[in-house]
Amino acid sequence: MRTKLRRNYFTFFIILLVLFSFCGRRNDPNILARVGDEIIDREDFILNYELQAKPGARPRTYNDRKRFLQRMIENRLLALYGLENGYADDPRISHQLKAIEKNVLIKEFYRQKVAGKVKISDAELRQGFLKSKMKIRARHLFVKTKEQADSLLSLLQKGYSFQQLSRNLFRDTTLAKSGGDLGYFSFGDMDENFEDAAYKLRVGEISRPVKTRWGYHIIRVEDKVASPILSESEFQAQKHRIERVIRERKETALANEYVRNLMKDKHVIVKADAVNFLVRAARKIKKRTDALLPDKFPELTDEEIQSVQKDVENHLHDTVVEFAGGSWNVETFFQKIAESLPQDRPDLTSHLDIAEKLAVMVRNEFLLKEALAAEVNQIPHVRRQIRKQKMRLLAKLVRADIVQNIHPTEQDFQNYYQSHREKYSSPGKIHLREIVVADSMLAQRIYAKVLAGGDFAALAKEYSMHRETAEKGGDLGILTAPDHPQIAAQVKYLQLGQVAEPFANDGYYFLLQLIDRIPPQPLPFRDVEDLVKTDTKNDFIRKSIAKICSDMEKRYPVNVFEDGLRKIDAQDGDNVVEMIRVKN
User: Fold this and answer.
1) At the N or C end, where does the chain have fewer CB atoms within 10 A?
2) Which of 340, 355, 374 is the last residue of a domain?
3) Section 406-423 average pLDDT
4) Highest mean pLDDT range out of 175-179, 274-278, 362-366, 543-547?
């Protein structure tokens, strides 16, 4: 009896352990999703979500975050597919995988060297709070080298506008079209050097070239708005975020100081002769079509870098840099380029950029040796971070292969066109009359007269303040519905001849009468052929990705914990500027 009782107690205890383990696993607020044994946590989500933001974008909502999490889950499933199908050994990404691991190890080594050494005073926090109450609107032009930045400044001084120059500089279409307009930002939103320069500029003033870790910027401040109210309660509410910004910046400064001390006796010397023939070879490949304003500042592709390497094959054994304890020849330099992240590669058409990036590459080799000596690569959270980044790269490669292997036929295009005719139609149009008045009570009285049988055209001539249309009985003409969404929404459910209830807009009151509704007209295939082909290919790509993810999900079940996603505050995920919060 006692044995049976002990067995029951033991069984009950095991069940409790399993239940508590399961509950703890489900309720961890930092875990947003599980894909099999893979975890997507809060930190990973916020980092990726911030980096995807676009300047000037609308504030993002919970549904935006939910969609982004689904995209991360999709990428994790694609990465698992890549692992199962040998992508980890694909030579196309072998160099990038090395670059990722090196980058993570160096960052962790930095962190260890500065962790616990940063002190932040209350005065610093309050100064940061004061700066955070000033919002600045600025635009910028961005290039990789000081030479290019000086060229841009010269063009601005000759009368070129930011709008003219930005069209040829930015891949981001929002920045290209807006003249580099970054919208409003405040303390902690930008790189510290960029921020300091912007705060010092007067409205309308243009900066000299400002160096950040990404390159060089020419900045013009468009507006400054200071909050007139400062309160202790608001300071306390913002204190944590301000402290985080200051801490990151101080840690970066300490890391830089450590590097300077590490490198002061390394005596790095870049060989001018080798740099010169590299630049000549690169410039032959990247000829500028317009010496004054090129279509695009040079940025060599992998294929073009290989062409440069082939062009200088007689110099591959020439020394390009010397340092204490060794040197690199040109061949080694190209190998180091291949093993660098894209943003860390030099612009081979620029003497200065080659020299600067070469010095950084040598520095990173010394840092990597220090990191490995400290066994940073054995730390569990570092290994997890390396795996996360490798999984992102695998997902990217799988996605690229899917795109490369999609080849719809002409019949596929026709089928897609026929089944989506509503997408390929001219927009619907509406023919309206209007009455515009400044008083809500008058608008209601006119509306009552219309309902009682009054003639809308006659009432428009009598009452409407918009004389241009009033003289025509309020006739607004034919409007394209998508171009006037607010007006279209007011008359959406009206029958011909009916009048919408009065509504306010910009301090005036409007009555609208629907005269005619012209439905969308299908467009012939030849007029939309390019768009149909793009849409068809994208549809095939989506379906292929969905099929792979569906198959993978059978082996790697997906669980999403929406409570954790809902708790991510807007300020955690909605910092909206192109160049911010990427730690050194």
Assistant:
1) N
2) 374
3) 94
4) 543-547
As for how many domains the chain has, the answer is 4
* Each residue's pLDDT tens digit, 419-458: 998 889 988 899 999 999 999 999 999 999 999 999 999 9
**Residue 47 and residue 143 in one domain:** no
297 inside domain? yes
Q: What is the pLDDT of residue 12?
A: 45
| Residue 123 CB-half CA count within 13 A | 0
Check whether residue 236 and residue 278 sit in a common domain.
Answer: no
Q: Does one domain contain both 129 and 244?
A: yes
129 with 87, same domain? no
397 close to 437: Cβ distance less than 8 angstroms: no
Assign residue 26 a region (left: φ > 0; alpha: ψ between -120 and 50; beta: otherwise): alpha
Does 276 lie in the same domain as 240?
Answer: no
CA distance 295 to 551: 45
41 part of a folded domain? yes
Task: With respect to residue 217, please indicate whether it lies within any of the assigned structural domains.
Answer: yes
- Reported as a single tens digit per residue, the pLDDT across 140-166 is 999 888 888 999 999 999 888 898 888
Buried/exposed 102-126: b ≥16 CB within 10 Å, e otherwise: bbbbbbbbbeebbeeeeeeeeeebe
In 158-231, where does DSSP find H-type helix?
A: 162-166, 173-178, 192-200
Question: What are all long-range contacts of 240-249, with beta carbons under 8 Å and residues at least 24 apart?
Answer: 241/188, 241/571, 242/125, 242/128, 242/129, 242/132, 242/187, 242/188, 243/120, 243/125, 244/188, 245/128, 245/187, 245/188, 246/120, 246/124, 246/125, 246/128, 247/118, 247/120, 248/583, 249/192
Rounded-to-integer distance, Cα 172 and Cα 186, Å: 22
Q: Is the predicted pLDDT of residue 20 greater than 90, yes or no? A: no
**Which residue's entry shows tokens 């050494």?**
117
Residue indicated by tokens 């290039």: 143
Residue 492: inside a domain: yes
The answer to whether residues 220 and 271 belong to one domain is no
Single-letter amino acid code for the residue at 1: M
User: What radius of gyration do the chain's Cα atoms show?
Assistant: 31
- Find the domain containing 513 and state its range: 426-522
CA distances for 478 relative to 427, 429, 432, 455, angstroms = 12, 6, 7, 20
- What is the per-residue pLDDT for 43? 80
Question: Model's pTM, two decimal places?
Answer: 0.65
Mean pLDDT, the chain, rounded, equals 84
Which CA distances in Å does 2 have to 5, 9, 10, 14?
A: 5, 10, 12, 18
Report CA dihedral (57, 344, 143, 578) to the nearest 10 degrees.
Answer: 10
Structure tokens at 203: 């409205």
244 and 130 fall within a common domain: yes
What CATH number is associated with residue 493?
A: 3.10.50.40
Query: Both tokens of residue 116?
Result: 């616990």
Place of tokens 């301090």: 507
